[in-house]
Records
---
Amino acid sequence: MGKQLIRKLLPMLDKMNWPDTPVATAKGQQAFEIGMEKIDNAPNDPQAIAHAIRVFLSGDSLPYALAGVAYALVYASREKNGAFAPEGLEAAMEWLEKAQELEPDLVDINVIEALIYIYSDRFDDARLILDYLQGQEPTNHYLHLAEIQYWYNQRNLEQTVHWFEQAAISAITVPQRLRLSARLGDVYMEFKQPQKAVEAYREAIHFNKDNHLLWYKLAVAYWQQEDYAEAERCVDQVLRIKSDFALGLKLKQALQKKQSSGVLGRLFGK
């Protein structure tokens, strides 16, 4: 990911077959939404990004295809440390501007500009775009997701949670709601609020009971609350689903040590 992936992607884009239709179409919008969904499900997976680009191009709408590629370039720019390669964000803006020239008033497309500014640490510029788009289409789901990113990067937990709630209302599909609940749990963990993280992870698991990673995250949240019995129950679910999951095995060992030391402590009156 990051610089290396951007350097591979950019030459390929010029060789691709682009849609001929220079306006937004229903089919183009559908391809745009499907492609974005693929990236949102696996934003750190180069194969998912490449697949999404092919989906964007499959629609019959050039502006949506151009905007989709811009979105793909944004997430292809993410380095392992979480930073975004400037050259990738610059390339994303170039492709986005081509889409905006064809369709200047589509919120789904213009919200990508705010994301580019957010990941470039240009928060004042991002706020101007977001405020403008709020005046155009305040119930837009992608706008709500961008607001989450804006406030999360500002480290404002209250506003971040507010926009998670708004995004949950505007979400259309179960996978969208699943991602939101799981991401909210991650945010609460970052802000050292494991009790609230438990609630978010449990909601996500309600929609996806066989996701070993969600069970693992829930186990860690219980561990941080020192609720070792619940943590172990969750780890057992992790290993039931994926018996060789290394992080789950490690946590299971740690829980067994905790249990053992607790028994010894009671035996010796400690």
Note: The mean pLDDT is 93.
---
Amino acid sequence: MKSKKQLEDLEKAKAHQELSQNQGQTEQPVPQPAPLDQLQQQLDGLAQTLRQQRAETEAGLQDAFSQATAGLGDAQALAQLQQVVSSLTGLARNQGLQGSAAQYHQLLGRLEQDLQKQVQSGLQQAARSLQQGVSALAQATAALMDNQIYCQLIHQVCHSRRLLTNWEFTGDTRIH
């Protein structure tokens, strides 16, 4: 009878010990995704980052096109100014003071209007240039951030390669 009591006490102690161990292990490790799932997650992250980079690059190209368009407008305005000055110069050479004063007034009025447009355009361009200066600083910062993103992408590629190597090495055939 004494041994039966001791056996019951031992079984209770063992059950109590197992219960204590199970309570201490409430944090069970989270199962790792299958290697293919991990690789797909890495590749999805790469694709998303590259899409963002492409969108930013296209926005930069749009800014460059806008600047080129403004430059073309300036070149056309300068050509027009040169044409008016050439007309005035030709009038002065060919007719001198014999020419019609109305022609001189007309050409000088046109030259003045064109020059006023250029002054206005120059002020607008100066304002744009100041804005572009601020934008250039932002672009420089963005370029540094892009470089950091590319470094992160390299890290992700290396991680993907490591996942693939581990997958090949372990022979794990789980897909998901």
Note: Residues 101-170 form the longest helix (70 residues).
---
Amino acid sequence: MRTRTAGAVEHILLMEVQSEQYDQILRDTSADVQRLGSKIDGLLGADLYATDDRTHVLVLSHWADDATWGKAQWNDDMQNAVVARFTSAQVVHSRLYRRIALEDESEPS
């Protein structure tokens, strides 16, 4: 199992979708996540979430650092998957977040 370090980053891809396209977008996104998960250097994993009202799909991808995330954006398979998601959804929000280490404020025992 790969672990995330303090330099790790998370990428959030939130898609607002039409309910009649929800099932297809969910299948396509799931296939992309599974296919790319083992092929892209620096991608530690990804999680796929969907809302019960069939209006939103969220992909949370975990990256070793921002350099590997940036390099992956030039990968043809990654580009094709991202373009497909942007064209199939009504609205897409994409944002990269840096992991912030939380300090343990508890007293030592």
Note: The mean pLDDT is 85.
---
Amino acid sequence: MNRDFSRDFTGYSFIAAALMLWLGWILIPVHIDIFFRPGDFSSIGNHLSLYIWMYRVHIFGMIVTVVALTALGSLFPRVSSRVLVYPGIAVISTGMAASALGAAFFYQFGASGAVELQGMSPEVIRDYGASLKLDTQYAGCFYRFGRVFTGLGMVFLGAGLIRSKLLPSWTGFSAMLIGIAAMAVIMAFPDRENLYFPIFHLQSLWLAATGFAVLRSGLSLSDS
């Protein structure tokens, strides 16, 4: 197969996004539940550098996902399926941006709290966590809406991929199923983070698999 810069950039962007999203999340040493607990700050402090860097990798993975999807959209010819693909990409990008804002809150206040609360009494630590409760609710809301929007966008994108037939049909069908599952779980069980994790793993796998599908496809814009 002749190499093509636009196709290669798109495919490898998908794979990079999958690795950054998934590995960043898996390697975060302390995962915050709905709210910060007093013991979270000492745990973060024990792995502060890893906590900071893995959150950065995870958040950058969300942005690289937007890059990959935008690149994929640019590869689509003037076919009717673009009316599904482009809105899907736009909604997923909105969802990723919202999720990144939510993640940035836990990244910032987890790290800064671990540093500022070193040597403080349990009462001070408890009060600090309580002072973040309202802001944490907003951050959690960003996360939840981000996941719902990402799911909705995947439904549109998946339908466009199926209609276009430019990539294998499984890329479209799996995107739609993952998107529907994400919306259903988050809207039905908004406070059950553990129920969403299998969907997150599937989304990351979808990104990587779609990246390989793009690399093997005939999609092309460039002449070389």
Note: The chain has eight helices and no strands.
